[in-house]
Amino acid sequence: MAFYKKMKMKVNGKWYPKSVLVVSPATTDQVAKRIAAESTVSPADVRAVLTALGGVMGDFMAQGRSVKLDGVGSFYFTAVTNKNGVATEKEVSVNQIKGVRVRFLPETRYRGGGKGRVSTRGLSDVDIDWEEWKGDDKKTKKPEEGGGGDPHPHP
Predict the structure, then answer these.
(1) Paired residues of 103 in beta bridges
(2) In sequence order, which residues have a C-beta less than 8 Å from that of residue 99 and are 6 or more positions away?
């Protein structure tokens, strides 16, 4: 069950449903136990692989490569530059790079065929049941940048 709450956007004064995260994030141990239950691998082995995954992905991305995980999507680095661009191409330099961000593109899935074929981006083919969050906002976690509801929902 996924949750949303009603939010008024400051930009246009209109109301939209915005996704909310509740309780706490799923931990590496919880993910490892769940994967182990759905496979023939032990929770300890899954945890070891998950622990190594971040470093391995970072190494590949530092080489200028993206990392595509089947059933998940692709990850890649982008440069964060200072706000002030330069006037000419010749002036562009590495000194303008102030940091790095990790970007994620969910895997694209296709359902149906012919004219009814629909593409969706998501981590899996699960159907999400949305319910309005009636709990205490102090217990909810605000979604990270890009992790919230779409401020411009599509029909």
Answers:
(1) 76
(2) 79, 80
Are 123 and 72 in contact by the 8 Å Cβ rule? The answer is yes
Q: In this structure, are residues 45 and 28 in contact, taking their beta carbons and an 8 Å threshold? A: no
DSSP line for 5-21:
EEEE-TTT--EEEEEEE
AA identity, residue 39: S
DSSP character string of 78-146:
EEEE-S---SSGGG--GGGEEEEEEEEEEPEEEES-GGG-EEEESSSSPPPPEEE--S-GGGEEPPPTT
By CB atoms closer than 10 A (0-12, 13-18, 19+), residue 107 is: middle
Structure-block tokens of residue 128: 């999400």
pLDDT confidence of residue 128? 80
pTM: 0.69
CA–centroid distance for 25 within its chain: 13
pLDDT digits (tens, 9 = 90+) for 63-74: 999 999 988 899
Amino acid at 141: K
Taking each helix axis from N to C end, the angle separating 43-62 and 28-37, rounded to the nearest 10 degrees, works out to 120
* Triad 85, 144, 8: Cα angle to 5°: 95
